[in-house]
Amino acid sequence: MTKNIFLSLTMLFVVSCFLKAQESKVNVKTESDNLCFEVTFKGRQVSFSSPLGINIDNNRIGEKVRIQQEEVKESGQRTYIIEHKERGIYYLDIREFDDGIALRYRVPAEGARCVYNEQTAFRFPTKTKVWYASGPFQYGWIQSYQERYTDDINNELLAPPATFLLPDGTYAAITEANLFNFHGAVLYGGKNNEVRFGYADNKGLIESGKLTGMPSRYTHTEVRDYPWIVFPDTKSKRKLLHHGAY
Question: What is the pTM for the complete model shown?
Answer without folding.
Answer: 0.78
